[in-house]
Amino acid sequence: MFKNSLTSAALALLFVLTATTQTIVQAAEETAGRPKVALALGGGGTRGAAHVGVLRVLKQEGIPIDMIAGTSMGSIVGGLYCAGVSVDTLESEFKISAIMKNYMTVPIYVRMLAIPIFAVPHLFGWHPYDGFYFGNKLRNYLDRSLPENQKEIEKLNIRYCAVATNLVDGKEFVISKGPLAWAMQASSAIPVLRRPVPLEDGLLVDGAIVANVPAKAARAMGANIVIAVDVDEKLHQIPRDHFRKIGSVAPRIEQITLAHGDDPQLQSADIVIHPNVDGIGVLSLSPSDAMAAIRAGEEAARAALPEIRAKLHMGEPAASSK
Questions:
Q1: 131 pLDDT exceeds 80?
Q2: Nearest of 154, 28, 189 to residue 82 by alpha carbon
Q3: Catalytic residues
Q4: CA 104 to chain centre
């Protein structure tokens, strides 16, 4: 009986090893002879819902995705997708504003009114990092959204990295290992609004400061083709009289800063997808804004398909899903 059990165990082990070997060989054959493709998903808050639309079209059209580099909301959408969260589930989360509600746990005006209270811990010797929100609720929400076996970056279905900014040395900090939820929290920690996230020897905030569309990080992962998805508002010319309105200058400065900051990154990309997300606020809690961004992502991705197929030397599919 013992001998039979041992034989059965050996056969089971042999089966597992054979199946694993076949999977590895199949994966190698699928990538052999074609370029490795990376997505660089940019930051943009609610505008980042457009990434969901882009991912849906690429998946429908059979465009391979070997790796994803993400910044801020791009790191969140990209991280969840790499962990196996479906496009439909991501859309559902945006439809009910779940991601942004967990990001903005308390209305910003309430936090601003509470600024004097933030000084109280310092009187008792506790010196937390500067910022209105801790970010714990967001991290816990993201962690709950991940499959149990996909919570570490090293275990993800698709290779992944998140880009953050290190306050200590002022440089880009690429997170390519460790807990995924922590990486997404750090990459999306808007300075002042969110408290910095300590990681290794760094103190990390939103990666948009140094690399809002992380095309260079995507290239460094070993990609032959980098598809960058820029979800910033487009930099159109605006009449001078527009800036007579109170509060009109700050949003324009944000547009200009991001547009010029993105240029060096986009030059490292082979293809740039730029959905039309004009008019959608970074911190919008409106489901209609999120759905509009998703539709914009789908439209922009479909428009880019001929260029993507040409780069991959892929012909039109026999039965397109359009």
A1: no
A2: 154
A3: 72, 206
A4: 18
